[in-house]
Write a structure and sequence with these properties.
The complex is a heterotrimer.
Chain A (H helix, E strand, L loop, with lengths): L5 E10 L2 E2 L1 H9 L21 E2 L5 H8 L9 H16 L9 E6 L5 H11 L18 H10 L5 E5 L5 H14 L5 E8 L3 H9 L20 E2 L1 E9 H7 L5 E10 L12 H13 L9 E3 L6 H15 L5 E3 L2 H4 L6 H15 L31 E8 L3 E8 L3
Chain B lengths: L1 H14 L25 H15 L6 H7 L3 H11 L3
Chain C lengths: L16 E10 L20 E2 L12 H4 L4 H16 L7 E5 L5 H13 L8 H6 L3 H9 L5 E5 L5 H14 L5 E8 L3 H9 L23 E2 L1 E8 L7 E10 L3 H14 L9 E4 L8 H8 L7 E4 L1 H4 L6 H14 L7 E3 L8 E8 L3 E8 L2
Parallel strand pairs in C: 2-6, 3-4, 3-5, 9-10, 9-12
Antiparallel strand pairs in C: 1-7, 1-8, 5-7, 8-13, 10-11, 12-13
Helix pairs in contact in C: 2-5, 8-9
Classes of the chains: A alpha/beta, B mainly alpha, C alpha/beta.
Chain lengths: 403, 85, 366
C-alpha cells in the first residue's frame, strides 16, 4: 500500500532465553535454548513436560519493574512492563506530546495468577478480593496496567487471535499510524505460562515432552513458553520530531484467514501462502528478495507440513534461508509474533540468521532443510516473519533494513 | 456384542454431544471420520478421553488413535481386547 | 484539568461507512422482529439473561455438537445479520468481546481440577479462545479474508469498528461483518460481586436509572452489523467514532463538543443521544456531564436498564440507534427525557464502561 512508511525505533523482550535484548542475543548466537523444567507454574504436568519458562519469580519482576504495590500485577502484566521498559528506554518518547497508542496482545490475560485463586474467588462464602485480583482474569487488565505504568492514553487495544495475536497487534498499530490516528504505536504481546494453557495444549495432544523439532521428519509437537515483547512504531514525520533512529522499516504485513478448521491449518498451506505472498507484494518486493524467513514452525505435525508446502508453493526451488526459533523460547502464543519481530530486528541489525535447533532430517514430503547453525556471513536485508494460529488466523510481517 | 456396540454408541452420542441422534443412526461399519459420521480430529481427541475414562485405555499417539477409532466395529473390538475396566 | 483539548486529540476524520444490517440478541426479545418488542420485559433480579432463540432451525446435530451458549448465540446473530444484508461471504470478520465464552473457560478450569490434570476434553479449551467464534463464523460462511478479535472491555467493539473503517480506507474491502458478544455466568457474577460491582439490593430493571446507590445490574448481549463502503440498501451510516481512555468528566465534556464540531453539528442539531447510565451513583457524573449540556430539542435515551451492564453493551446502543434511524421512530422504553426535535437525522452514542473506557459514536440517517 502506498502512503506513509512505518519505522521501528525501539524493542524490548523478556523470554526464557533472556531478560532484555543483550541476553537474548547471547543465547541466540550460542544456540542456548531456554526450554527446560517447569519450576514456577504450579502444575502436575511439570513431571511430564518441559517448557520455556522465564526463571524470574514474580517478586523479582516486581522489583525489576518498580510497579506500585497498591494494585495487583499479574505475571502477564509484570512481564509486559519488564519488556516494554527496555523498548521505551531505547528511544525517546513522550506520550504526553505525541499521539501514542498501546496495542497489546494476550491469549489468556491474567490466568497465570487467577488460576491459583479462582475457586476461592468464585466461592460465595469467601470474602477476599485482595488488591482487586478478581478483575485480572480478562485480557484487558494487563493492557491497562502496562499502559498506565507508561502513561500511554491515546489509543488502547488488546487483540486475541491465538498464536497470531501480537503479529496482528503490530500490523494494527502500523495501520493506525498510516491512517493518521497515531504518531507512535507501541505494539506487542505478553503471555505468562499457565496451568490452563499447558493442560489445554496437552489435551490437544500436540505437546512434545522432549525439546521440539521444527521441520523435522520426527517432530512430535510443540513446547510452550512464556514471554513478552514489544516494538515501537513511528511514522516518518514523527521520526523528525523525535529524532529517533530507526532500527528497521516495517515494510509489509498481511492478515489472512483461511476458514478451514477450528484448529488445523489447511493441508495445502493456502492461508500461509496468501499471507506471505501479499506481505511481500505490499513491500513492492519479489520472493527472491527475502533474505531470511523466521517461520511459525511450531513443530506440530500439521503446522510444519502446511507451512512448508506454502513455502514451496511461493518460492519454488529457491526457498530462502529459514528457521524456527521456537526451540529457543518455546511457543509463546500471543507474544510469539512480537518475540519473533524482535528476532527479525536483531537479524537485520547483527546480520545473523539463527539456527533451527534440534533439526536432524527433513520432512519427506517437503525435503526442506532449515538453517541448522548460526549464519554470520549472509547479507540480511529483508526478514519475513510468520505467525499462524487457531481458527485459521494467519499473519505475516516483513522487516527491512533501514536505508 | 450388539448390546455392547449400542452402549458404546450411546456413550459416543453423550461424549460428543450429538443431541437428538440415536444409536441406530450410526452404522457399525461406516467410517466415523470424514465421509461416514463426519467426525474430525477434535472428536477423535474426545473419543480418546472416553476410552480412558470409561475403559481405562490410554492412547498417547493421535495417529494410533485414529486407527482404533475407524468405525464402531473397530472401536468395539479394540476395547474388548484392551479394556482395563 | 483545563477545559481545552490538547492539540493532538484532534483525530483524523474518516469517510462514513454504511450499516446495511443490524441484529441483536439480548435480555429483551430483540431477535424475533429485529426491534424492541412492544412490551419490554421487566426483571426483578439483578441479572438480565439472554432471551435465547431456537437454534435447531439454524444448525444440524453435527454442527451443534461443540457449540456452547455464546457461540450459538453469536453465530445465529451473525447469520441473520449477513442474511439481512444478502451477504454470503463478508470480506472481513472482526469481533469484539471482553470475556469470550466464559462457560468454556470456566469448564476447562474445573476440568483441570476435577480430572487432576489428566486426559482432558480439548473442546472447552479450544472454545475458550477469544477468537473461536470469529473462526466459526468464517468456517460457516466459508469466508476467507481479514479476521481479527479485540478483547478490550469497553473498547472491544470500538476497535473492531475502527479496524473495519481503516480497511475501507485502505481499499482492502467493500464489506465487513462486525460484532460483539458477551455472556454472564454465575461464577463471573460472583467474581464481580467481590469487586462490589453489582447492586447489593435487588433491583427492578425499570427503576435502575434513578437508583441512588452504587453498583449496577448484570446483562448479556450479542450484536452483529454488516458494513458497506457504498450507501446502497443501507439503514444508517456511521460518521464518527472516538475513544477516550481514563479521562475525567471535563475532558468528556470538551471532547463531546469537539466531536460534534468536527462533524459540523451544533448542540441544537443533535436529535438523539444515547447515554450509558447504568444506575451506578459513582459513575453517573460522566453521563450527567453530557446530559447537562444538551439542548431541549435533543431526545435523551438510555439503554442499560433494558439489557443490563456488560463490557460491550455499547453494541445495544449501536443496534438501537441504527433501528431508530431506519424506522424513524424511538421506542418509548428507551426515552429518558423527550426532546422537542421533530426530526431523527442523527444519533450520538456516549458509552462509558467502568468509568475508564469512554466512546462516542455518531450515526446519521441515510
Amino acid at each position: 500500500m502506498p502512503g506513509k512508511r512505518v519505522f521501528i525505533t525501539g524493542m524490548g523482550i523478556i523470554s526464557a532465553i533472556g531478560t532484555g535484548v543483550g541476553e537474548t542475543l547471547v543465547s541466540l548466537r550460542n544456540n542456548v535454548s531456554g526450554i527446560g523444567s517447569i519450576d514456577i507454574v504450579d502444575t502436575l504436568l511439570k513431571t511430564k513436560l518441559i517448557a520455556g519458562e522465564i526463571k524470574v519469580p514474580n517478586d523479582n519482576l516486581v522489583e525489576l519493574t518498580g510497579v506500585k504495590k497498591n494494585a495487583y500485577y499479574t505475571r502477564t502484566s509484570l512481564l509486559g512492563i519488564a519488556a516494554l521498559q527496555e523498548a521505551m528506554q531505547m528511544c525517546k518518547l513522550d506520550p504526553s506530546r505525541q499521539k501514542t497508542g498501546f496495542i497489546n496482545a494476550t491469549t489468556v490475560g491474567g490466568m497465570s495468577d487467577m488460576e491459583k485463586f479462582y475457586f476461592d474467588l468464585v466461592d460465595p462464602t469467601t470474602k477476599s478480593n485482595e488488591n482487586g485480583l478478581a478483575d485480572c482474569l480478562d485480557c484487558a487488565d494487563c493492557t491497562e496496567k502496562i499502559a498506565d505504568h507508561f502513561n500511554i492514553k491515546d489509543w488502547i487495544a488488546t487483540i486475541s487471535t491465538a498464536c497470531s495475536s501480537s503479529a496482528n497487534a503490530i500490523l494494527y498499530g502500523a495501520r493506525l499510524i498510516k491512517s493518521g490516528q497515531l504518531d507512535v504505536a507501541v505494539c506487542g504481546g505478553t503471555d505468562a505460562l499457565t496451568r490452563f494453557t499447558l493442560n489445554g495444549f496437552n489435551s490437544l495432544k500436540n505437546i512434545d515432552p522432549s525439546p521440539c523439532m521444527p521441520f523435522d521428519e520426527n517432530r512430535n509437537g510443540l513446547n510452550l513458553g512464556e514471554a513478552a515483547a514489544y516494538v515501537i512504531l513511528e511514522s516518518e514525520e514523527q521520526l523528525q520530531r523525535s529524532g529517533n533512529k530507526p532500527l528497521a522499516e516495517l515494510s509489509g504485513y498481511r492478515n489472512f484467514n483461511e476458514a478451514f478448521h477450528p484448529t488445523a491449518p489447511s493441508p495445502n498451506g493456502e492461508g500461509a501462502l496468501t499471507a506471505m505472498q501479499e506481505t511481500i507484494q505490499m513491500a513492492g518486493l519479489q520472493p527472491a528478495d527475502i533474505s531470511y524467513i523466521n517461520v511459525h514452525g511450531t513443530a506440530t505435525l500439521n503446522n510444519d507440513l502446511s507451512e512448508g508446502i506454502a513455502l514451496k508453493r511461493l518460492f519454488g526451488e529457491n526457498v530462502p534461508l529459514f528457521s524456527s526459533t521456537k526451540p529457543f523460547t518455546g511457543h509463546t502464543l500471543a507474544a510469539a509474533g512480537a518475540v519473533e519481530a524482535v528476532f527479525a530486528l536483531l537479524s537485520l541489525q547483527e546480520q545473523i540468521i539463527y539456527a533451527n535447533l534440534n533439526f536432524k532430517s527433513p520432512i519427506p514430503e517437503l525435503g526442506l532443510y532449515p538453517v541448522t547453525s548460526l549464519q554470520t556471513d549472509k547479507t540480511v536485508n529483508h526478514v519475513l516473519s510468520n505467525s499462524f494460529g487457531f481458527g485459521g488466523n494467519n499473519a505475516s510481517l516483513l522487516f527491512s533494513k533501514y536505508v | 456384542m450388539d448390546d455392547f456396540k449400542k452402549d458404546l454408541k450411546l456413550q459416543i452420542i453423550e461424549a460428543l454431544n450429538l443431541q437428538g441422534m440415536n444409536p441406530d443412526d450410526i452404522d457399525n461399519t461406516a467410517p466415523l471420520f470424514g465421509e461416514g459420521l463426519g467426525l474430525d480430529s477434535i472428536d477423535s481427541l474426545e473419543l480418546m478421553v472416553l476410552l480412558e475414562r470409561n475403559y481405562g485405555i490410554k492412547i498417547e499417539d493421535a495417529r494410533e488413535g485414529r486407527k482404533v477409532l475407524e468405525s464402531i466395529d473397530a472401536m468395539a473390538a479394540y476395547i474388548q481386547a484392551n479394556r482395563k475396566k | 484539568m483545563a477545559e481545552t483539548t490538547p492539540a493532538f486529540y484532534l483525530v483524523n476524520m474518516f469517510n462514513p461507512v454504511y450499516i446495511t444490517s443490524a441484529r441483536a440478541i439480548c435480555a429483551q426479545d430483540t431477535f424475533s422482529n429485529n426491534n424492541l418488542p412492544e412490551e419490554t420485559k421487566a426483571f426483578e433480579q439483578n441479572i438480565l439473561n439472554y432471551h435465547e432463540p431456537d437454534y435447531k432451525k439454524y444448525f444440524t446435530i453435527m454442527q451443534l455438537r461443540r457449540m456452547t451458549r455464546i457461540i450459538k448465540i453469536g453465530l445465529v446473530t451473525a447469520i441473520e445479520a449477513l442474511k439481512d444484508a444478502k451477504l454470503e461471504q463478508p470480506q472481513a470478520i472482526i469481533t469484539g468481546t471482553a470475556k469470550g465464552s466464559m462457560t468454556d473457560t470456566e469448564k476447562f478450569l474445573h476440568d483441570i481440577v476435577d480430572f487432576n490434570e489428566g486426559t482432558l476434553n480439548p473442546t472447552a479449551f479450544i472454545q475458550s479462545t477469544y477468537n473461536a467464534l470469529n473462526g466459526l463464523i468464517a468456517l460457516h460462511h466459508n469466508a476467507n479474508g481479514y479476521n481479527s478479535t479485540y478483547v478490550h472491555r469497553g473498547f472491544s467493539l470500538e476497535n473492531a469498528l475502527m479496524d473495519a473503517i481503516m480497511l475501507f480506507e485502505e481499499n482492502r474491502i467493500e464489506n465487513a461483518l462486525i460484532g460483539c458478544f458477551e455472556e454472564m455466568t454465575a461464577e463471573h457474577y460472583e467474581l464481580k460481586k467481590k469487586m462490589g460491582y453489582w447492586k447489593n439490593e435487588s433491583m427492578k430493571n425499570i427503576d435502575l436509572l434513578n437508583s441512588p446507590t452504587t453498583g449496577t445490574i448484570a446483562g448479556e448481549g450479542t450484536f452483529f452489523f454488516t458494513l458497506n463502503k457504498s450507501a446502497e440498501n443501507a439503514i444508517a451510516k456511521l460518521n464518527g467514532l472516538r475513544m477516550l481512555y481514563n479521562v475525567d468528566e471535563a475532558l468528556i465534556k470538551t471532547t463531546f463538543k469537539s466531536f460534534l464540531a468536527e462533524h459540523n453539528l451544533t448542540l441544537d442539531e443533535v436529535d438523539t443521544v444515547f447515554l450509558s447510565y447504568n444506575g451506578n451513583s459513582q459513575t453517573r457524573h460522566f453521563e450527567d456531564a453530557i446530559s447537562q449540556q444538551l439542548s431541549p430539542s435533543t431526545n435523551q435515551l438510555a439503554f442499560k436498564h433494558l439489557c443490563g451492564e456488560f463490557d460491550t453493551a455499547a453494541g445495544f446502543a449501536l443496534w438501537a440507534g441504527a433501528k431508530i434511524l431506519q424506522h424513524q421512530t424511538i421506542h418509548p422504553s428507551l426515552i429518558l427525557k423527550k426532546g422537542t426535535s421533530s426530526s431523527l437525522k442523527n444519533v450520538v452514542i456516549y458509552n462509558q464502561y467502568n468509568g475508564k473506557e469512554h466512546a462516542f459514536y455518531l450515526l446519521e440517517k441515510i
